[in-house]
Structures are given as C-alpha cells and as structure tokens.
Amino acid sequence: MATGTNRIFDDFARLMTDAAGAAQGVRKEVETAFHAQAEKFLNSMDVVKREEFEAVREMAARARDENEVLKARIEALEAKLSGQQS
C-alpha cells in the first residue's frame, strides 16, 4: 500500500507542477495582451513617448538660449545705432 500512496502523491505533485506551469503561461499571455491593448490605446490617443518629449524639451531649451543671445545682440546693435545717430 505504501507504493500506491507514493504513486498517488507523485501523480498529485506532477499535476500541481503542470497546473502551475499552465497558470504561469496564462499569466504571460494575459500580460502580453494587456500590454498590447494599452499600447494600442495610448497610440490612438496620440500620447507622446517620453523620449520624444525629452528631445523636444531639449530643443525648446536650446531655442530659448539662442533667443536670449540674439536678443542681447539686437539690443547691443540698437544701442550702437542710436549712439551713432546722436
């Protein structure tokens, strides 16, 4: 009878192992489907990706800096011109 009990436990352990593997496979499929749907939803909303946002923000910062430099040059030229006309 001990052999029969061991066989039942072995079968039960094998069944539990198979069930755990199947559950993990289902979990991965659900995660993949969720990520695909979330990405599809975000794409339909025209949400910008973080990398794109950072790139545009950096471009805007450079443009602001350049504008400040150009503004200072214009003011210097205007001052020079008004000094010559006096």
Helix fraction, binned, reads over 70%
Whole-number mean pLDDT: 89
Tell me the total number of β-strands: 0
Strand content: under 5%
What structural class results from the helix and strand content? mainly alpha
Question: Which shape, going by the Cα principal axes?
Answer: rod-shaped
Low-confidence stretches: none
N-to-C CA distance: 118 Å
* Number of helical segments with 4 or more residues: 2
| Rg, alpha carbons | 34 Å
Largest sheet geometry: none
* Total number of domains: 2
What letter string, H or E per element, gives the SSE order? HH
Keywords: Coiled coil
Coiled coil: 53-80
Protein name: Accessory factor UbiK family protein
InterPro entries: UbiK
Mind explaining what this structure looks like?
The chain is mainly alpha-helical and about 90 residues long. The protein is built from 2 helices and no strands. The chain has 2 domains: about 1-45; about 50-85. The chain has helices at about 1-45, 50-85. Pfam families: BMFP.
